[in-house]
């Protein structure tokens, strides 16, 4: 089982789980306002250890559009298959306009992933 460290707290998570869902499973209220479809960037994380070498074309497209490539990753587009340390960017308790974190993400990456090397 991969170890996922979120804001300094280490947890074991299911291998193959979407990172956004693994983070939620640790009790952290990470945003996913678009339902985990690589559209809004509210599930963004900073990865301090264990950043994957690949990303989906959808993640690259939205991060490029927002000028965030190389700064953050989208947790809705990452699979937990190794140890990682992350810090979420948007949390329910920090966003005054939010009443929830967003629609529940599917268990598999959406849209269907096309993998590319991380720039």
Describe the structure in brief.
This protein has 119 residues and is of the alpha+beta class.
Structure description:
The chain is α+β, with helices and mostly antiparallel strands. Helices cover 14% and strands 26% of the residues. The strands form three sheets. The chain has a five-stranded mixed β-sheet with strand order 2-1-8-4-6, with helices on one face. The model has no long low-confidence stretch (mean pLDDT 98).
Cα shape? globular
Report the mean per-residue pLDDT as an integer.
98
| Class from secondary-structure proportions | alpha+beta
User: What's the CATH C level?
Assistant: Alpha Beta
- Order of neighbouring strands in the sheet with most strands: 2-1-8-4-6
The number of helical runs is 2
Tell me the CATH superfamily.
Beta-grasp domain
Low-confidence stretches: none
Please compute the radius of gyration using only Cα atoms: 13 Å
Fraction in beta strands:
25-35%
Helix content: 10-25%
In angstroms, what separates the terminal alpha carbons? 28 Å
CATH architecture: Roll
Number of separate domains: 1
- Main sheet? 5 strands, mixed
Would you tell me which CATH topology applies?
Ubiquitin-like (UB roll)
How many distinct beta strands?
9
Could you spell the SSE succession in H and E letters?
EEEHEEHEEEE
